Amino acid sequence: MSPIEAVATLLGLANVALVVRRSLWNYPFALAMVTLYAWIFLQARLYSDALLQGFYFIVNGYGWWNWRQAKAEAGEVPVVRLSNRARLGCAAGAALVALGWGALMSRLTDAAFPWWDGTIAVLSIVAQILQSRRAWECWPLWIVVDLLAIPLFLVKGLWLTAVLYCLFLALSVWGAIDWTKARA
Questions:
Q1: What integer is the mean pLDDT of 41-57?
Q2: Are 64 and 27 in contact (CB under 8 A)?
Q3: Is 113 helix (H, G, I), strand (E, B) or coil?
Q4: How do the domains of the chain map onto residue ranges?
Q5: DSSP string, 51-105
Q6: Which of residues 184 and 171 earns the better pLDDT score?
Q7: Whole-number Cα distances in Å, 146 to 21, 77, 83, 107, 171
Q8: Share of the chain above pLDDT 90, in %
Q9: What is the pTM of this model?
């Protein structure tokens, strides 16, 4: 546990709590958090997670813009649902990309747990895109990501990050419930 991990943990808690509440203020916290976590994951040789932070930085910029536009039009950040076809496409695409990314990380790097870490990274990308688009389906996917990430971070000795992901898990359940109500 390092002071940087502690700060990143606090930023992450604030970020996700604000996402659940559909607050635009989640984005400054997200940008600071992912910057710190990029460094943390590089140090732990979790390269997929480190690269994921760069992706998060870019998609959080897009999400900030998208949420601001939606709020300006609707007076709040509206929640949308994917069609069954879109859900199936996301699932199939994520599975194929996770297989490819895991294979790539396994062959080309000294990554710790390349398949596990790679799967978490790919599912996180899909969840982050869905979240940026205000899709309710991001929450069940975040729950899966959290359930996969917690034991990985424990194995790597990232205790605060594992605790953070336990809290993310609870917040993801809250988000799924709250966003369901927002759609009603």
A1: 88
A2: yes
A3: coil
A4: 3-78+85-183
A5: HHHHHHHHHHHHHHHHHHHHHHHHSS---B---HHHHHHHHHHHHHHHHHHHHHH
A6: 171
A7: 19, 24, 24, 26, 10
A8: 76
A9: 0.85
